[in-house]
Amino acid sequence: MDSFLIKGGVPLHGDVQISGAKNAVLPLMAATLLTSGECVIRRVPNLTDVRFMGQILESLGCEVKWDGDCVRVRAAKLKPVGDYELIRKMRGSVCIMGPLLGRTRKATVSLPGGCIIGARPIDLHLKGFEALGAKITIEGGDVKAVAKNLVGTSIFLGGRAGPTVLGTANVMMAATLADGITVIDSAACEPEVIDLAKFLNAMGARISGAGSPTITITGVKELHGAEHEVIPDRIEAATYAIAAAATNGEVTLKGIRTDHLHAVLDKLREAGVKLDRVGPDLKVSRGRKLKPVDITTQPYAGFPTDAQAQMMALMCLTPGISIITERIFEARFMHVSELARLGAEISIEGPSAIVKGGRPLSGAPVMASDLRASAALVIAGLAAKGTTQVNRVYHLDRGYERMELKLNALGAKIERTKGE
Ligand code: EPU
Predict the structure, then answer these.
(1) pTM attached to this predicted model
(2) Spans of the chain below 50 pLDDT
(3) How far is the CA of 417 from the centre of ligand 1 (A)?
């Protein structure tokens, strides 16, 4: 398993191009299952999760062709069963269920278990499919949905922690080919849901309200091929903005959508980080003095859970006390004990982490546990004195395109060491 050796203490300087969004592209690729026509998706980031999704589509009978950051998918004829070993490996693969159910009236995926960031149930996805008329059974660890017909209806998708992003995507995709009108209430409002609705509408679907808590889908008989460009990755952008502030550098984020980043930019500004628009780009630099800020993660447009760990790394470097409360995933504090190995002082009280910031961090070997926790460790390592070894960086390869190359182009000193 590869590791990063990070020589810390170097301020980041320069421009960084933000890639297409991982969490948008996975459901977009799944949506290609809804039609036999050719779909073309551009600005696709080269990530292990994305390549995995390509393999899953192939195992379902799709023709998948890669050309740089563009993928062409033709799902002319679908096989009744895919490669479940592959499907099992990636939680995001659950979003093939909605399109398979919509197109073929049946779908089987392996029931995703919990993961390192907490229990990851799919009860809301299944509730939506059942409301559309599917029968759900669980057999040998797989969940099967079968429907004679799908009929539009009114579905409330709010859960314990608010709306569900992939659940909304899944039910929306299934409903595009249902009879009649489906209304999803308490739908997720994330930009990735809007991006998916845009692509589906380009394929001939009739969806309105995406980006609001109420989405209306008027079923159509069939969808056709379409082209689409993926939105920029707001979490990658947030990660580089935080890294710039953490290293006392000056980095210009290129190709971003600041309108997708309001909550993060607001907190960075409150923390004393300087943000300057340069045409469509955003220049991020540390202001004179960082200030501690309290953060609570929320569904969009609130502060994203996917940027919580990175922000905690910044708060470790900021003199004073900040309270970071995680409201989306109950166990998303795996980075806390690893940040402590670098010298951070953090205690956990229920859903909150109390960070006593301002102690100098010093390099140490640390273990990456999930994608965003790993990003937090990289940020802390970049700011720490001495060398930090981040082990198991395959987590980062799942969600950050060429991370060490992008950071090294900004002046960082990161070496990837090959493991077995
Ligand atoms: N939930 C339920 N029942 C469900 C589905 C979700 O109770 O049927 C709960 C979850 O346990 C959680 C909350 O609802 O407490 C929100 O989960 P959601 O379904 O929105 O998460 P997701 O769609 O599975 C996507 C991203 C995550 C991101 C979350 C929240 C993808 C592939 N994944 O997951 O991304 O954290 O939305 O924004 O889009 C990451 O990129 O690092 C990552 C984990």
Answers:
(1) 0.97
(2) none
(3) 32
Query: Of the residues 19, 49, 120, which should be mutated to test ligand 1's pocket, given the most ligand atoms within 8 Å of the CB?
Result: 120
The CATH superfamily holding the domain 3-19+232-417 is Enolpyruvate transferase domain (3.65.10.10)
Identify the pLDDT of residue 9: 96
Task: Report the share of the chain in percent with pLDDT over 90.
Answer: 88
pLDDT recorded at residue 110: 83
The answer to whether 271 and 291 have CB atoms below 8 angstroms apart is yes
Q: Give the tens place of pLDDT for each residue, 251-268.
A: 999 999 999 999 999 999
- Those residues with Cβ within 8 angstroms of residue 335's Cβ, 6 or more apart along the chain or in another chain: 309, 312, 313, 369, 372, 373, 376, 377
Residue 210 phi/psi, 5-degree rounding, is -60, 135
pLDDT of residue 126: 96
- Nearest-atom number in ligand 1 for the CA of 94 is 24
Give catalytic residues, as residue numbers.
115
Topology of the domain covering 22-229: UDP-n-acetylglucosamine1-carboxyvinyl-transferase; Chain (3.65.10)
Whether residue 161 has its Cβ less than 6 Å from ligand 1: yes
Predicted local distance difference test score (pLDDT) of residue 120? 75
The pLDDT value recorded for residue 288 is 79
Would the CB of 238 count as within 6 Å of ligand 1?
A: no
How many beta carbons lie within 10 A of that of residue 420, not counting itself?
A: 4
Ligand 1 centroid – CA 166 distance (Å):
7
Distance CA 279, CA 261 (A): 16
Task: Parse the chain into domains and list their residue ranges.
Answer: 3-19+232-417, 22-229
Q: Determine the distance separating the centroid of ligand 1 and the alpha carbon of 91, expressed in angstroms.
A: 10
Q: 329: Cβ below 6 Å to ligand 1? A: yes
| Domain 3-19+232-417 shares a fold with domain 22-229 | yes
Q: What is the dihedral of CA 125, 200, 146, 171, to 10 degrees?
A: 20
Q: Which ligand 1 atom is nearest residue 372's CA?
A: 42
Regarding the beta carbon of 400 and ligand 1, being less than 6 Å apart is answered no
Question: Which residues fall within 8 angstroms of residue 362, CB to CB, at 6 or more apart?
Answer: 342, 343, 384, 385, 386
242 lines ligand 1 (CB under 6 A): no
In this predicted structure, what is the pLDDT of residue 89? Answer: 80
Atom of ligand 1 minimally distant from the CA of 304: 38
Q: What's the confidence (pLDDT) of residue 3?
A: 96
